[in-house]
Amino acid sequence: FRLALIQLHVSAVKSDNLQRACGLVREASANGARLVALPECFNSPYGTQYFKEYAEKIPGESTQKLSEVAKECSIYLIGGSIPEEDGGKLYNTCTVFGPDGALLAKHRKVHLFDINVPGKIQFKESETLSPGNSFSMFDTPYCKVGLGICYDMRFAEMAQIYGQKGCQLLIYPGAFNMTTGPAHWELLQRGRAVDNQLYVAAVSPARDEKASYVAWGHSTVVNPWGEVIAKAGAEETVVYTDIDLKKLAEIRQQIPILSQKRCDLYGVEMKK
Q1: Half-sphere exposure at residue 264, Cβ-oriented, CA atoms within 13 angstroms
Q2: Are the C-beta atoms of residues 77 and 66 closer than 8 Å to each other?
Q3: Which one, 46, 122, 177, 230, has the greatest CB density within 10 A?
Q4: Active site residues
Q5: Could you report the per-residue pLDDT of 57-115, keeping only the tens digit for each?
Q6: What is the per-residue burial (b if ≥16 Cβ within 10 Å, else e) of 205-219?
Q7: Shortest CA distance to 181 belongs to which of 214, 152, 159, 134?
Q8: Which domains, and CATH codes, for the chain?
């Protein structure tokens, strides 16, 4: 099946972001994509100073538009993420809609991005956001898909749980920056893919040098062998790739690490 990653240029105008995102989703569908993914914070600028201003309830304006375009195009749509307000708390939340427009999954970013690289970048999502507390998976006729958002990708245990639960594709809407992007964006995707012998796709906003937070871009798809099979540059674009589950099965048969794990010595478990 064909996967499309929409590397969207995000502006400060929510209505423009929604309109352009939906237009690119339609374009991806017309080009044969059955699963389409948007980037982290696709409807607003990324930054702690923006989350409260742009936050919405779910369902709300942005997710209603996603539901409508998923149904119109008869696709599975991973709605990147938006700032969500619920019960007085803010979350960084990814919604997934099916070909009938129904909500299939809602993933709240589990690991909040609180980092300090002296002289390069300091960022603290926990100043405004609350963490999610659950894994998020959904089924398609093609395969089961596991969800994470950006910083979630750094936590190998999360990906391993998804693999154990039968996911063959992991999708991470993310916005790595100009410090962490060149160093770790592709490396982490390849690591998660090889460790768990599955496909990993990470979809970023396009780079905007004028933004307060400059995203690295380079939306990428990695196969279970650890090869980069599709990759964007920094500009707004749509990345297409065909996910070959027969290749996944062959790799798992050739190097059967999943059946060779020493569960008598170690284990990773899902607690809730």
Answers
A1: 1
A2: yes
A3: 46
A4: 40, 109, 150
A5: 999 999 999 999 999 999 999 999 999 999 999 999 999 999 999 999 999 999 998 88
A6: bbbbeebebbbbbbb
A7: 214
A8: 2-254 (3.60.110.10)
